[in-house]
Design brief:
mainly beta, 138 residues, 10% helix, binds dTDP-4-keto-6-deoxyglucose, five-stranded antiparallel β-sheet, single chain
């Protein structure tokens, strides 16, 4: 298993390049700091759409731009950071209790997310004030 990173950190996957193109693989135990329980994709995003706008109580995730680009805004309760994701080998790890918002999707952008648990609506904190309260108590 990859070492546990900070609450938000960059993940770099290998790129195998040759004249036929590039190949990137994900070996869960090598590259991802949790056991992957779920993979989902966000695509066909209309111009101007915003996604996310919540944090998770327990869920850990890694977010990649498989195609195109988008902006990921992150708040760990102490500091806010912005990332522009645009390369399929470079991802952002988000630990639990991290507020995320995603916008500025380019046309044809595909956002792939690796998640540590199955989907569970109960794990979402959708109110930012409540999120900040929970972070302070953690
Ligand atoms: C996150 C960002 C990056 C499912 O049925 N299964 C799933 O695995 C997911 C992720 C969602 N859904 C359903 C729940 C909603 O009815 O799909 C619908 C849209 O989900 P949501 O509004 O949560 O989508 P986003 O793009 O705002 O957020 C998602 C993830 O939920 C979230 O964990 O970090 O992508």
């Amino acid at each position: 298993m990859a070492p546990i990173p900070a609450r938000v950190s960059k993940i770099f996957l290998p790129v195998i390049h040759d004249v036929r193109g590039d190949l990137t693989s994900i070996e869960g135990s090598e590259h991802i700091p949790f056991k992957i329980a779920r993979v989902y994709y966000i695509y066909n995003v209309p111009t101007g759409s915003e996604r996310g706008g919540h944090a998770h109580v327990e869920l850990e995730q890694v977010i990649f731009a498989l195609s195109g680009s988008f902006r990921l805004k992150v708040d760990d309760g102490n500091s806010k950071t912005e990332y522009w994701l645009s390369h399929p080998s470079k991802g952002i790890y988000l630990n639990k209790l991290t507020w995320r918002e995603i916008d500025r999707f380019s046309q044809g952008a595909v956002c792939m997310v690796l998640a540590s648990k199955p989907y569970d609506e109960e794990d979402y904190i959708r109110d930012q004030t409540e999120f900040l309260k929970v972070v302070k108590l953690s």
